[in-house]
């Protein structure tokens, strides 16, 4: 028990999903949160979607344009990758949560709701992901909200290859779809929205402060 923050890490692990458009700062904030949790003695595992499984590798080939297929097939690949992420025997996160490990994931099903519903009906995407939401709902979804212009600026500084979803108009649409999905599922899902247009540490401090409520 962390008495300063009243956090009890001895129970079932918490599951924290980071969401946001590309370049919003998810992986940066996950690294900062992991360090903070380690310092507080919380057993923590970090992961991401798409995964590095064979299904995830196929997705990466689609995202970089090396393999072409229908949008519905792409959405279904993410569904399969997510179920494997949850349930595979080697490092399935559902099992880790049962063992008391806190899991931080860079993207989960809200990414599907936001990215795929730009081209497909959101209802269909939500339904296609129903099994994942029944198996494991995030303790909290942390949405790092950033302007698409700033996200693209940050991406441009650090990457030479642009993936499928990184054009501005796409990111604008994806951000809107995130907000639509949060509104639609507000009675079922816990969502923490943080302003990502700030300095790394400022964002990290706000996440930690607000998260302590969910980690109790
Ligand atoms: P994501 O995982 O959401 O794609 P990253 O954490 O990789 O985003 O951040 C994208 C880029 O922006 C990285 O180069 C990172 O160092 C930088 N970055 C992240 N957060 C901030 C911030 N608050 N201010 C300035 N640059 C940032
Ligand atoms: P990646 O470069 O791995 O991640 P990030 O942009 O977060 O650093 O790219 C993952 C891409 O996959 C990203 O553009 C979002 C997209 N995506 C979907 O379209 N559907 C999904 O269900 C998930 C998890 C991701």
Which keywords apply here?
12% strand; 52% helix; alpha/beta; binds thymidine-5'-diphosphate; 216 residues; binds adenosine-5'-diphosphate; 10 helices; disordered N terminus
Topology:
Blueprint lengths: L14 E5 L6 H14 L4 E5 L5 H10 L7 H17 L5 H6 L3 E5 L2 H8 L5 H7 L1 H6 L4 E6 L2 H11 L9 H17 L6 E5 L4 H16 L1
Parallel strand pairs: 1-3, 1-4, 2-3, 4-5
Helix pairs in contact: 1-10, 2-3, 5-9
The structure holds adenosine-5'-diphosphate and thymidine-5'-diphosphate.
Radius of gyration from CA coordinates: 17 Å
Strand order, main sheet: write it out. Answer: 2-3-1-4-5
Low-confidence stretches: 1-9
What pattern of helices and strands is seen along the backbone?
A: EHEHHHEHHHEHHEH
Structural class: alpha/beta
Question: Which ligands does the model contain, each kind named once?
Answer: adenosine-5'-diphosphate, thymidine-5'-diphosphate
Proportion in helices: 40-55%
Instruction: Give the termini distance in whole angstroms.
Output: 10 Å
Q: How would you characterize the largest beta sheet?
A: 5 strands, parallel
Share of β-strand residues: 5-15%
Tell me, briefly, the overall form: globular
- Count the beta strands: 5
Q: What is the average of the pLDDT values?
A: 92
Number of continuous helical runs? 10
């Amino acid at each position: 028990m962390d008495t300063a923050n009243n956090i009890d890490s001895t129970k079932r692990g918490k599951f924290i999903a980071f969401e946001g458009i590309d370049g919003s700062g998810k992986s940066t904030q996950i690294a900062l949160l992991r360090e903070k949790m380690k310092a507080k003695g919380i057993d923590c595992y970090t992961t991401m979607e798409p995964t590095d499984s064979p299904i995830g590798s196929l997705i990466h080939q689609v995202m970089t344009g090396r393999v072409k297929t229908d949008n519905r097939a792409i959405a279904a690949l993410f569904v399969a990758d997510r179920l494997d992420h949850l349930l595979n025997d080697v490092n399935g996160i559902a099992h880790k949560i049962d063992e008391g490990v806190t899991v931080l994931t860079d993207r989960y099903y809200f990414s599907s709701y936001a990215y795929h519903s730009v081209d497909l009906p959101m209802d269909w995407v939500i339904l296609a992901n129903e099994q994942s939401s029944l198996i494991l709902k995030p303790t909290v979804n942390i949405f790092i909200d950033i302007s698409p212009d700033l996200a693209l600026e940050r991406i441009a500084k650090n990457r030479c290859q642009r993936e499928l979803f990184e054009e501005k108009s796409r990111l604008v649409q994806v951000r809107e779809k995130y907000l639509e999905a949060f509104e639609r599922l507000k009675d079922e899902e816990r969502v923490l929205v943080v302003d990502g247009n700030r300095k790394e540490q400022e964002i990290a401090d706000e996440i930690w402060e607000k998260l302590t409520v969910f980690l109790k």
